[in-house]
From TrEMBL:
UniProt feature, compositional bias: Gly residues: 1-14
InterPro entries (alphabetical): DAO (IPR023209), FAD-dep_OxRdtase (IPR006076), Flavin_amine_oxidase (IPR001613)
Organism: Streptomyces laurentii
Cofactor requirements of the protein: FAD
GO biological process: D-amino acid catabolic process
Region (Disordered): 1-41
Keywords from the UniProt entry: FAD, Flavoprotein, Oxidoreductase
GO CC annotation terms, alphabetical: cytoplasm
Enzyme Commission code(s) on record: 1.4.3.3
Protein name (database record): D-amino-acid oxidase
Domain FAD dependent oxidoreductase: 47-359
Binding site for D-dopa: 260, 315, 343
Similarity annotation: Belongs to the DAMOX/DASOX family.
Positions with a binding annotation for FAD: 83-84, 198, 216, 342-347
Amino acid sequence: MAGGEVLGDEGGSHQGEFYGDGRPARPVRRPCPDGRAGGTVPAMDSDVIVVGGGVVGLTAAVRLAERGRRVRVWSRDEAGATTSAVAGALWWPYRIEPEAEVGDWSLATLRVYEGLAADPAATGVRLVPGVHADTALDTLGAWAKEVEGLRQLAPHEVPGPYQAGLAARLPLVDMPVHLAWLRGRLEAAGGSVERHVVTDLGEAFAAGARVVVNCTGLGARGLVPDAGMRAVRGQLVLVENPGVDTWFTAADGASAETTYFFPQPGRLILGGTAEEDDERLSPDPAVTAGIIARCARIRPEIADARVLGHRVGLRPARAGGVRLEAERRPDGGLLVHDYGHGGAGVTVAWGCADRVAELVGDA
Ligand SMILES: Cc1cc2nc3c(=O)[nH]c(=O)nc-3n(C[C@H](O)[C@H](O)[C@H](O)COP(=O)(O)OP(=O)(O)OC[C@H]3O[C@@H](n4cnc5c(N)ncnc54)[C@H](O)[C@@H]3O)c2cc1C
């Protein structure tokens, strides 16, 4: 499929990957391995099926498997073709609700990433210093007090045209590496991941699961169905790193244009956009030029950096915030929903996984 094709919410992956010249790096829509959407899967030896193999689904699966559950993950897409693989990905609660719970989920996740940062090559997690411009400490929730080293900068310390800013040392996650590591950890705990398109969550119960965990991100829009799910498009540019070793963000909540850069091994990720209800998966060249120009205002050397590629992803936003709750089905099965993490699924993944494990309990 051409990278420019627009997919419906049930139609395919919610990200696009492109070479530096804008050609699609791989087909965006993939069939089920058996060639049939929603093909039947043989009876299996597992009592939990997690539908969704992005960061939210894999993390929940790891938690459940390490508590002794026999867990299988069903995913329409390979991990590298999920929205999760597109993320930058900095730990920070951005474009996610509900506020009351997000703080706790984020802090629980922060503690896990701080531990994983001891082995960055394997886990993809590093603690990296940087600046959130245009952000004041007293506008953040109580969670911010628990983030060690987070401090308000004096105006002269903030780069670019910004008057305020925060300095912090936060987890920066190399998502392709981290997703592969999560899968390995799941497999080490006896779990498995399979490519399988689900057209009805009941299929997983019919396949023998007592518990089904729905981590389908934007796919929940058609699958649940949940009309509150909305795509928030994000476009990124990958460039050769001209020597930037700290991250920077300046997110204007009132605009679709944001400015950020994240140094990752082998590349500098430049962003970005937050375009509501825009589901185009191909990179827009005018947007690319705007992203590079905005980032170069902060670090001029970015203007001439060689472009390595482009990424586009659709953040799974939900009216009313993340849905994290269980429902008992008439047949006695337990269906746990864990989707709608907007712009911060990486930031809250472990906290949400802990809650999933609580909801599943001994079911
Ligand atoms: C440009 C961009 C930058 C971002 N930066 C950050 C950041 O810095 N920090 C941060 O915390 N977050 C960031 N995010 C947000 C983050 O990427 C998402 O919140 C997160 O990836 C959501 O994870 P998920 O597992 O719920 O969804 P996804 O990664 O979309 O995974 C959904 C899974 O469900 C599967 N699925 C869907 N439908 C079906 C079906 N019918 N049958 C079977 N399987 C199905 C898919 O195949 C996939 O495996 C960013 C997002 C974008 C787009």
